[in-house]
TrEMBL record:
EC code: 2.7.2.4
GO function terms (MF aspect): aspartate kinase activity; ATP binding
Coiled coil: none
One GO biological process term: homoserine biosynthetic process
Sequence ranges assigned to domain Aspartate/glutamate/uridylate kinase in this UniProt record: 2-277
PANTHER family for the chain: ASPARTATE KINASE (PTHR21499), ASPARTOKINASE (PTHR21499:SF59)
Cross-referenced InterPro entries: AceGlu_kinase-like_sf, ACT-like_dom_sf, Asp/Glu/Uridylate_kinase, Asp_kinase, AsparK_Bifunc_asparK/hSer_DH
This protein's pathway: Amino-acid biosynthesis; L-threonine biosynthesis; L-threonine from L-aspartate: step 1/5; Amino-acid biosynthesis; L-methionine biosynthesis via de novo pathway; L-homoserine from L-aspartate: step 1/3; Amino-acid biosynthesis; L-lysine biosynthesis via DAP pathway; (S)-tetrahydrodipicolinate from L-aspartate: step 1/4
Keyword Kinase found: yes
Keyword entries, A-Z: Amino-acid biosynthesis, ATP-binding, Kinase, Nucleotide-binding, Transferase
Name of the molecule in the record: Aspartokinase
């Protein structure tokens, strides 16, 4: 069997869903499980809605109505007004209707997951209905009964044994009779609440299903020809890799290459399942194959940008040397604030750390650090990571930007720049 993943860009409008159907039609003779993300930028819009609701600042109803209108516009283009899908979508949105009528009492991350998950619940309903309308027998699957997580809202940790058991138990029989369409990015807790797996987590969902079902391959259909040596949004003159090793792909995604979610590769590597990254606009193109076979030689360096970084410099209040006791206290505070460190450096009098800026977590961490240390910070920074680099190429890449922190190993150069 095969697992396909269609991201937001591929289902951003009615032509996108028609295109998805054409791609799927080419595989009509295969057993296929299809993972779909929220349409276009819906997750961003739902995040805005969550903020507006929790902080009671913006016009909650206006944001919500725009989200609904966007989906109904797509439905109008694809279905007759009497089609059952209109009811299904209305019923799915009702969950938000009820929630935003009440005062926000619960924890932010919990509310976030209950609201933001609607994007995938709606998109998969629409895709399933359209596939069936076009004669492709498809079943809508509620992923929350199959991908089981703990209750770390916004970053659900997958309970692999329970997930595997439920997927193995039900899905193979379903695939005998029809294609199965399910939501990326979502999970469910043992109390039946919805969790999310971390932004852009639908690739990870595809990998989980593939690993549990021992799929022949996973294909993620993207708006790029495959994996390129750099993000084409920021670099011209990129080259596509025909093949990449799991290890190289893990490194790239770890450093922040947004094309694949970082948790995706490992389960596939463990199960020796290839990951194909292909363009949804040209389904017969070769794309990139990620497997055990990698490249021996990189004609161009791999460049990865991680934006919106904050760099914090921490020193002892009595200006003494930084010791292991200080470091241990600092790391505990980072762990307690759920802040993942991207780069760090110790010098005699300070410890410098660079990480993704996320307002609530950053403010919490800063408050805690300031109780025991002197703290200075700099935000709006970028980490440039260059793998398989040549020294002269680095200079050209940095241009006249100021380097605040630099680390070079044999294969990888990393620079924090302003
Ligand atoms: N090395 C890279 N190769 C290809 N695309 C990249 C790379 N790094 C970042 N990207 C970006 O990843 C985007 C595709 O990933 P993503 O937006 O997550 O797709 P989707 O949400 O449709 O699954 C591209 O539009 C591109 O801008
Ligand atoms: N919709 C979620 C999950 C996801 O993976 O989306 P995409 O496949 O469009 O990156 C997000 O935007 O974070």
């Amino acid at each position: 069997m095969l697992v396909f993943k269609f991201g937001g860009a591929s289902v951003k409008d009615a032509p996108g869903i028609i295109n998805l159907t054409k791609v799927v039609q080419k595989y009509a003779d295969q057993q296929l499980l299809i993972v779909v993300s929220a349409m276009g930028k819906t997750t961003n819009a739902l995040e805005k809605l969550t903020d507006a609701y929790v902080n009671q600042i913006d016009d909650v109803h206006q944001i919500y109505n725009d989200i609904k209108a966007y989906h109904y516009h797509i439905l109008d283009e694809l279905f007759e007004p009497t089609h059952q899908v209109f009811n299904d979508i209305e019923n799915t949105f009702v969950e938000i209707d009820w929630m935003i009528e009440d005062e926000p009492h619960d924890d932010y991350d919990f509310i976030y997951d209950q609201i933001v998950s609607i994007g995938e619940l709606v998109s998969t309903r629409i895709v399933t209905a359209y596939l069936n309308k076009e004669g492709i027998n498809s079943k809508w699957l509620d992923v929350r009964g199959y991908i089981h997580t703990d209750n770390t809202y916004r970053e659900g940790v997958v309970d692999w044994p329970k997930t595997r058991e439920h997927i193995e138990q039900d899905i193979p029989a379903m695939l005998e009779n029809s294609m199965v369409v399910t939501q990326g990015f979502l999970g469910g807790t043992s109390e039946n609440f919805t969790t999310t797996l971390g932004r852009e987590g639908s690739d990870y969902t595809a990998a989980i299903f593939a690993a549990c079902l021992n799929a022949a391959s996973v294909t993620t259909w993207k708006d790029v020809p495959g994996i390129l040596n750099a993000d084409p949004k920021y670099f011209t003159d990129t080259v596509k890799f025909d093949q990449l090793s799991y290890t190289e792909a893990i490194e790239m995604t770890y450093y922040g290459a947004g094309v694949i979610h970082p948790k995706t590769i490992k389960p596939l590597q463990n199960a020796k399942i290839p990951l194909l990254v292909k363009p949804f606009t040209d389904p017969d193109a070769m794309g990139t194959v990620i497997s055990e076979i990698g490249l021996q030689h990189y004609a161009k360096p791999v460049i990865i940008l991680k934006q919106d970084q904050v760099m914090v410099s921490i020193s002892a209040k009595d200006y003494t040397f930084i010791t292991e006791d200080h470091l241990s206290a600092v790391f505990s505070l980072f762990a307690a604030s759920h802040v993942k460190i991207n780069m760090m450096q110790v010098s005699a009098l300070s410890f410098t750390v660079c990480f993704d800026y996320r307002a609530e977590r950053f403010n919490h961490l800063l408050e805690q650090l300031k109780q025991s240390f002197n703290v200075k910070y700099n935000n709006d920074l970028t980490i440039i990571t260059v793998r398989h680099y040549k020294q002269d190429e680095l200079k050209a890449l940095i241009g006249d930007r100021k380097i605040l922190l630099e680390q070079l190993s044999r294969n990888t150069a990393q620079m924090v720049v302003k």
